Amino acid sequence: MSREIKFRAWHKKRQKMYIVMSLVRPDQAPYCLCREHPDDRSEALLTEGLEFMQYIGVKDKSEVEIYEGDISQTIAFTDAGEEVRLSKFVYFYDEGLARFRKRRDDGEIYDCDKISEQGKTIIGNIHQKPELMEVPHG
């Protein structure tokens, strides 16, 4: 089973998220071609000062791609139709296990699986909305 390999990058100085179109590693300083929006022209950015996040290969219930650093939440409804917000999770790559995992807001760590992630909603990421979840970057 194969999955798409894609990245996005957080520009620390500009405080902006970019779609990474390609990574270039010439003999001098490595850079990437990035876009802020899919229809924008690509811009060459030095990789220094960028934090890269990989697509985990799964989408949420609204078909939004899930990347490292994304924050998801399960939202359920009571019989009366009232919205109930459940646990929040942040996604990260566990190098020791060589797989993507998620950390719940209480600190518990779980493996990611396609079925459970498709029931969640991405509500932000640790760079643009850190107030949603105070957790280490993984």
Textual characterization of the structure:
It is a single chain. The protein is mainly β and 138 residues long. It has two domains: 7-51, no CATH class; 56-132, YopX-like domains (SH3 type barrels), CATH 2.30.30.290. It is 3% helix and 51% strand. It is built from one helix and eleven strands; from the N terminus they run E-E-E-E-E-E-E-E-E-E-H-E. The protein has a six-stranded antiparallel beta sheet with strand order 4-3-2-1-5-6, with no helix packed on it. The longest helix is centred in the last third of the chain and has 4 residues, at 114-117. It is elongated. The two termini are 26 Å apart. The relative contact order is 0.18. The model has no long low-confidence stretch (mean pLDDT 88).
Summarize the structure.
The chain is mostly beta strands and 138 residues long. The chain is 3% helix and 51% strand.
